[in-house]
Specification:
With about 250 residues, this protein is mostly helical. The chain is built from 10 helices and no strands.
Length: about 250
């Protein structure tokens, strides 16, 4: 069939009569005009969900994260960006900023005699998003076990902690210029306190637990994986071949 590309009454993909927004035969949009510069920008934004709740979700993760994530998991998902894409995008931005500004290079706590601890801190800072991503399963498993009576399954806990991770990325992005221009341990420790407070706030509202027992559970759900993740990520770092880190260094250099 010969399709007239200038016809507004026919689908430009299959030639079927299409007077609505989408072709009833193949599903393609009917407003597929010739490509211009504005279309390229739209395609880029569309591919990373900027026009499907990206900024709205970031706003909610700062304003009312516990309530927003609970609503998302319970089925109210219109206007929310995909948690996996959101984590990757915001994580990549955060990783770029922490690497570019060498955010935590001044802050090293000698908490153990583990071999090459200084190297671990350097890499865990440089590849901040990667080490945060590897920590998500530990936090998810721990919150699932501690709050098993809340009936959320393990995957839902994983989504919860992905969104928490994005929120913590946002908090760090806000703190990066402060840490950069005031590179003292007290500022970094204050950021750590704010980070923990954010996590506590999200879990408290999400699980709607305000009793002393509930707060103790939340503290355990944060403290246990936080300790475990240090050794977990150090294990990843120490077992990975140095050639891998050298290759990543060349890419980011």
């Amino acid at each position: 069939m010969s399709i007239d590309p200038t016809s507004k009454a026919h689908c430009k993909n299959c030639g079927n009569i299409a007077t609505e927004k989408f072709c009833p035969n193949c599903g393609q949009k009917t407003n597929t005009d010739r490509f211009e510069l504005r279309h390229i920008g739209h395609q880029i934004l569309d591919s990373i969900d900027f026009d499907r709740g990206f900024f709205h979700t970031l706003y909610l993760l700062l304003k009312q994260p516990g309530k927003a994530v609970r609503n998302f998991i319970l089925g109210s998902r219109v206007g929310f960006a995909n948690p996996f894409k959101l984590f990757l995008i915001v994580g990549a931005i955060t990783n770029f900023l922490t690497y570019e500004f060498d955010t935590f290079s001044h802050f090293v706590i000698d908490v153990t005699e583990l071999r090459d601890l200084e190297g671990y801190y350097r890499y865990s800072t440089k590849y901040f998003s990667f080490f945060t991503f590897t920590a998500i399963p530990l936090f998810s498993l721990c919150s699932w076990i501690i709050f098993y009576k809340k009936t959320y399954n393990l995957i839902e806990h994983y989504i919860l902690n992905l969104y928490i991770g994005v929120g913590q990325f946002l908090v760090l992005i806000i703190f990066i210029p402060i840490i950069h221009y005031f590179p003292v341990d007290e500022v970094t420790l204050f950021y750590g306190f704010i980070n923990a407070a954010y996590n506590t706030w999200v879990l408290t509202v999400f699980f709607q637990t305000y009793s002393v027992k509930g707060i103790v559970k939340i503290v355990l759900a944060i403290a246990i994986p936080s300790i475990a993740v240090f050794y977990y990520n150090y294990l990843i770092y120490s077992l990975s071949p140095q050639s891998l880190w050298a290759f990543l260094d060349r890419i980011l250099a």
